[in-house]
Amino acid sequence: MAAGERTERRRGRRSLAGEGGSSFSPSIALRSIDGHLTRTGGQVMAWYRLAAQAWSFRSDSQREVLIRQIAAQLGELQGRWLHLRVTTRPYPVHMWAESFDQNALGRMPDVPGALGWDGFLEGEQRHLMGLSMSDKEVFLGIEVSGRGMLDRWVDKAAPVLDKLVPSAVRAELAALESEVNHLDVLVAGSGLDAVPANAEDMAWLMHRSVALGLPAPRGLSSVPRGVTRWESEDLAAFTEGVDVFQEPYAPTVQVTGRIRNQTVTRHVAVLSVGLMEGLRIPEVDDPWMQHSDRLPFPVEWSARIYVRRPEDVTGELQRQMGKVRSQIRHYTHDHDLDPPMSLARQADRVLEVEDELTSGLTQLNTRLYGWWRIAVSGRDEEETTTRAQQVVELYRPKVQIEHPEAQYRYAREFVPGEPLASTAYRRRASVTWAAAGVPAATASVGDRRGIMLGETCTATRRPVAWDPWLAQEVRRASGLTAIVGGLGSGKSFLTGLIVYKTLRSGARWTVLDPSGPLAELTRLPELAPFSRHINLLRADPGILNPYRVVAEPRPEHYADDEDPERAWRRERSLAAATRRRLVLDVLSGLLPYEISRQPHTRIVLLRAVREVGGAPDRHPGMVIDALRRHARDGEEHAGVVADFLDERRELPQAALLFPDETRDDPWQADRDYRFTVLTMQGLSLPRPGSPREEWTDNEALGVELLNLASWLTQRTIYDADRNLRKGVALDETHFLSQVPTGKVLIDRLARDSRKFNVRALFASQLAGDLLRVSGFASLVNAVFVGRTDDEEAQAEALRLLRVPTDVGYEQMLGTLSPRPRHDDRPDDTPRQFIFADGHGGVEKIRIDLEAPHVEHVREALDTNPDASRVQVSGAPSYELQAPDEPSPLPPAAPPAHPTNGSVPTEVDGDDVSLRIGPGGDQVITGSTELRAGGVPVVAGDGGLLDDEQLDLLDELDEGWHEDLDDPASDDRSPSNGSNGAHAPNGSNGSDRSGGSAAGDGGVRAGEAGR
């Protein structure tokens, strides 16, 4: 008889087929996982996932409140063991892509030969995966109960009891239910903001702990639905395939495992936190556990903490007080000497502790001891030890980091349920010191379903996604967005990025860009069929008629109101009043400053405007006619005002206010465009901040035209379905704040943005210009602030961000996008912004448009001047004109053949060669020189124009514009201009969350030095 058969016969039964194998016992101390509870032979722990905590751009008082809240929660856990685990998870690119794709509602069709939606989405994912960024995840295990002898016996007898008495196996966990519920409520409060870990969280924690140091997989196989329990045999899913080795006296351990059917080996070094001097958190220092986030490689943390009971602490503190008092008496009574200052400080601390003991230990004074370990990994031992040294240098000199022996046992400490490797490097302190580590502090801004803007560039690097319509559709908030920054801060680049990516995902945009660089987006192949560019200064007369730029309310927009008819009539009355106020402001702005500031001028204008009314079919010419009638009735000043307005009416650009009633409205037939860019290239605007009395006539007219163009831009949002995602972008909005109706426009867009599902972008050089609009600061949702150098402007920008002032953040705005000082190359580095997402997140971010699939977009948005782009000087340029404006003619020259269009292709010296016709086989030539109205302009001595020549040039320039408006003019040489250049955005850098001077109210962490 075989030995196996004799053994089975002694056991009383024969083995069934398949039962001949040896029983499985996990190689770790853990025996089962049930929901968020883990069991070992002697302990049950409940695991929680801590919410990310914002640290940047908060005041010291707010940070102290956070630390005290965490300390109070830890103080409630007296008599319990805690296991803190900090790990990382690769940014879930596939989850973001899936959410982004599902959120791209009504996206435009693909254009053959251009970048399609699938290619765009794939390019975004590939770029994100190449950045290798990850999210910090913090888990906290709390001891629920120690396990007695009966519990251990039930655990060992579980295979038998599970068949005989199934309820006995789970009786222990059922008895702990009330205690677990108490812990769930305790840690859910402000501070830890923790929730019970779910099954996927527990699986990730186990994988990252058992396979310590191995690369984090992009995605684990999801836990089957409904599975919340792992028995002892199921734990093999975490331990099988992972081996840990250590050579004697080696500074690292070697971890080998399988990832996607490939064997991967990493070396891991475990460090321990040693002596620590008194840290001043938050006045001077950042949370000491957050320091490791600055390293360019992932770092794992594991802390074993025991929160002591008051009765255990009282006796120890009394003995320490007795020692200090004895030493003081030894100096003062025995030797009649003053005690050392260090001893005096200890005596003061003794008095504080004595007071605490007298009044009773509170949660904030509860003591604890624990061990904090740090794990770093590398491909080989050399790389790992180098990274370990970087950690040591990072914390030096305030914190001493030790590299202990017995690395294998220290590495096992990271696994839930494993025993403590050694009591060496124990830290004793208060719960306040432990809370000052703020392990969950990280960069938290944006969402997980919107367009990718870039990445955070503070202590933590994380991708920044932002859905501009999340606030309106989900949070019922405003869609108002401010983009603030000085020249070259990257406002235009950021606006273009937002517009392009949201257009691809289905939004509709109308952009007013006076200088015109964003018009290049309309030429991109994937956007061109759905886009149009209109230069308002060359469009039909009357396109900026003040009466028509204010949209007429539509009845269907008020169907959800309690009384739709009444609401519609109220809005119609409001629109008529807005038109009257707008035409009053515009006509006042056209008058000379000395005339417009006279009280009687306002009276006669107001009377004429009221007579004309506020119907959308009116125009400013009717107001001038009314003034003439009033003058004939004896109102002499009305005639004076009418004369000045008639004079301004003769200006070429003023014709935009007075319609040609013989032409059709071009906007009525062009509502299918998804993207419209309105430009005003060549518009004269005053210097920002200059007083009204210093404006020239052309500058005053320019401000009024800009105001009207802004109203025309917002009109488009009322012509489309209110549920469609729409966007309006306005540049140069600092001038709107100087015009009363401009402030009304900003306020109206802010209030209607939620109702009409609009994201409104207002770009300005100074935050103060927007803050002057009543209620703007309270209505604004998201804010982007670029480089700002002026101190007053910095303080106003922080107010717009809702960030504390006078605590050190003002200077940070001047360090955004640092510019090279000794580099002759153009500064095309991506720009940095402070981004407030509208729901609490504020971080410094770097705008990113560096992916290869959007290189053509980056080139289109590059507004840096570059002379090398001009192949040969003297070639005329032709900009894209509005669909309703006549095509410009080439310079007068005898054509060899009939022409139907021209583009410059060759320039030889002063002769310009143009290839025209469908095949480009027809050539005309001519000479080029500086002309104004067809008359050569010759510089005087020294190559500069004197004052008389400049005056002549102004007159000729006005005549030239008149020629453009005259269909019979033969010499039409349009000029192309720009109001400024902006550089692309972003740059990576470090961020020290500013703080005030050190005070007495800060959290002291020096106790850990004992």
Q: Any idea what the CATH architecture of the largest domain is? A: 3-Layer(aba) Sandwich
Tally of separate helices: 30
Tally the structural domains: 4
Supply the CATH class of the largest domain: Alpha Beta
CATH fold descriptor of the largest domain:
Rossmann fold
Total beta-strand segments: 32
Q: Give the distance, in angstroms, between the N- and C-terminal Cα atoms.
A: 68 Å
- Sheet of most strands: 14 strands, antiparallel
Approximately what portion of the residues adopt beta-strand conformation? Answer: 15-25%
Low-confidence stretches: 1-13, 872-1001
- CATH level-4 homologous superfamily of the largest domain: P-loop containing nucleotide triphosphate hydrolases
What is the arithmetic mean of pLDDT? 79
Q: What overall geometry do the principal axes of the alpha carbons give?
A: elongated
- Which structural class matches the secondary elements? alpha+beta
Radius of gyration: 37 Å
Strands, helices and their partners?
Layout: H1 3-11, E1 32-34, E2 37-39, E3 43-50, H2 60-75, E4 81-90, H3 93-103, H4 117-131, E5 134-146, H5 149-156, H6 158-164, H7 166-175, H8 177-187, E6 194-196, H9 199-210, E7 229-230, H10 236-239, E8 242-245, E9 253-259, E10 262-276, E11 280-281, E12 300-307, H11 310-334, H12 341-359, E13 367-378, H13 381-395, E14 399-402, H14 407-412, E15 427-430, H15 431-435, E16 451-456, E17 463-466, H16 470-473, E18 480-484, H17 491-504, E19 508-512, E20 531-535, H18 564-590, H19 593-596, H20 599-612, H21 620-632, H22 636-649, E21 675-679, H23 697-715, E22 726-730, H24 740-752, E23 758-764, H25 767-771, H26 776-779, E24 782-785, H27 791-801, H28 809-813, E25 832-836, E26 842-847, H29 855-861, E27 902-908, E28 911-916, E29 922-927, E30 931-932, E31 935-936, H30 947-965, E32 1003-1004
Parallel strand pairs: 18-23, 18-24, 19-21, 19-22, 20-21, 22-23
Antiparallel strand pairs: 1-2, 1-7, 2-3, 3-5, 3-6, 4-5, 4-12, 8-9, 9-10, 10-13, 10-14, 11-32, 12-13, 13-15, 16-17, 16-26, 24-25, 25-26, 27-28, 28-29, 30-31
